[in-house]
Amino acid sequence: MSAVDTAARSGRAPSRLASGKVARTETKRAKTVTPRHKRASVTLGILMTLMLLYCLVPLWWLVVNSTKTMDSLYNSFAFWFSGEFALFQNIVDTFTYKDGIFLRWLGNTLVYVVVGAGGATLLATLAGYGLAKYNFPGRKWVFAIILGAMAIPASALAVPQFLLFSGLGLTNTPWSVIIPSMVSAFGLYLVWVYAREAIPDELLEAARLDGAGEIRIFFVIALRQLAPALITVLMFTVVATWNNYFLPLIMLSDAQWYPLPVGLAQWAAQSSAIGGQAVPNLVITGSLLTVIPISAAFLYLQRYWQSGLTAGSVK
Question: In its UniProt record, which GO terms are filed under biological process (predicted)?
Answer without folding.
Answer: transmembrane transport
